[in-house]
């Protein structure tokens, strides 16, 4: 069964997001919060929301690939942004546009949540996700 992306009339529509994602017939994978940390828990990207977002999305890609999938299999994510403002949200959306080797991260259902802090004092971004692997992606 395929992963189906739906953007119903009457709801906000933009290229980076699907309002509804329907998935069946595959393994469900739950991915822990991915931040801009490297394997030594050192922050990549300094105090830059864009750079940290790119690294967190790359770490998310690494995690889903370790489970045997790809970013196209991600059906939902929750993005936690420290001290969220419209400008900070914009920096994250800019990172989405280039996070996959210069290409846009595939659309999926996601929410942006503002938080006061994350696990590390220097972390600005954390992303949890759900993927359905072994399901075909419908065009």
TrEMBL record:
It holds the Pfam family Ribonuc_L-PSP. GO terms for cellular component: cytosol. Gene3D superfamilies: RutC-like (3.30.1330.40). GO terms for molecular function: deaminase activity. InterPro entries: RutC-like_sf, YjgF/YER057c/UK114. PANTHER family: 2-IMINOBUTANOATE/2-IMINOPROPANOATE DEAMINASE RIDA, PROTEIN HMF1-RELATED. Belongs to the RutC family. This is Endoribonuclease L-PSP.
């Amino acid at each position: 069964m395929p992963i189906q992306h739906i953007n119903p009339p009457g709801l906000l529509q933009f290229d980076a997001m699907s309002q509804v994602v329907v998935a069946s017939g595959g393994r469900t994978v739950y991915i822990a919060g991915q931040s801009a940390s490297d394997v030594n828990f050192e922050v990549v990207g300094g105090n830059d929301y864009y750079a940290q977002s790119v690294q967190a999305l790359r770490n998310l890609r690494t995690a889903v690939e370790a489970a045997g999938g790809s970013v196209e299999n991600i059906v939902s994510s929750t993005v936690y942004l420290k001290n969220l403002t419209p400008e900070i949200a914009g920096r994250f959306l800019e990172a989405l546009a280039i996070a996959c080797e210069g290409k846009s991260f595939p659309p999926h259902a996601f929410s942006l949540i503002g938080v006061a802090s994350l696990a590390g004092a220097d972390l600005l971004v954390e992303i949890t996700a759900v993927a359905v692997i072994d399901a075909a992606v419908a065009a």
